[in-house]
């Protein structure tokens, strides 16, 4: 598996595919190992790298439903998974994640782990649509929430990032203030928001 993961990292670097970065990766693997998910929803497959990390470090019976807009990246993901022992664990949906989430049928017990890593401006929409798909106990991990330090930092973002930064601030505000959830922000990599269902509070 290590060799395949190194091959994917090299491909991502060469073709400029944004996969979870090295520092974020360590924290991400730790979260997978702590939570040992069985039923994962991933929003933003790219070439299937984080999905393989989930398959390698999650529960033995893990199933991963993953969403990707780009057909080219989805094809690359399928081809890489085919070289691993985990191809059968992956269910790939190609198309716009927001649209797919509106009609996605969750597994019977709901998803117990969600990884949000697609369009940064859509995280609020993803969080709202994911809520009815969750298991009773679930964790939602969102990548890039600190976006190069601009989201919680004092420095003003360049014009081209203004909207993304504003939307990511809205996401953090939402996950920190929605009743029934509690959120930790990890500074690793580009920032990970880790949102748990708070079993001490009722969800509305
Ligand atoms: N999770 C992957 C990993 O770490 O290996 C990286 C995902 S990459 C940061 C984000 C991916 O989301 C890109 O491949 C992009 O094509 C996809 N994406 C962007 N907008 C999308 C949308 N509206 N619906 C589905 N996928 C989208």
Description:
The chain is α/β, with parallel strands linked by helices and 204 residues long. The chain has one domain: Vaccinia Virus protein VP39 (Rossmann fold, 3-Layer(aba) Sandwich). It is 39% helix and 22% strand. The protein is built from seven helices and seven strands, in the order H-H-E-H-E-H-E-H-E-H-E-H-E-E. Strands 3-2-1-4-5-7-6 form a seven-stranded mixed beta sheet, sandwiched between helices. Helix 2 (22-35) packs parallel to helix 3. The longest helix has 16 residues, at 162-177. The mean pLDDT is 96. The site of S-adenosylmethionine has 17 residues, from helix 3 and strand 2. Residues 18-20, 44, 46, 49-50, 67-70, 73, 96-97, 117-119 line the site of S-adenosylmethionine (SAM).
Strand content: 15-25%
Structural class: alpha/beta
CATH superfamily: Vaccinia Virus protein VP39
The CATH class label is Alpha Beta
- Overall outline: globular
Q: SSE layout and pairings?
A:
Elements: H1 2-15, H2 22-35, E1 39-43, H3 49-57, E2 63-68, H4 71-82, E3 90-94, H5 97-103, E4 111-116, H6 123-130, E5 134-143, H7 162-177, E6 181-186, E7 192-197
Parallel strand pairs: 1-2, 1-4, 2-3, 4-5
Antiparallel strand pairs: 5-7, 6-7
Helix pairs in contact: 2-3, 5-6
Bound molecules: S-adenosylmethionine (SAM).
In short:
The chain has helices at 2-15, 22-35, 49-57, 71-82, 97-103, 123-130, 162-177; strands at residues 39-43, 63-68, 90-94, 111-116, 134-143, 181-186, 192-197. The chain is an alpha/beta fold and 204 residues long.
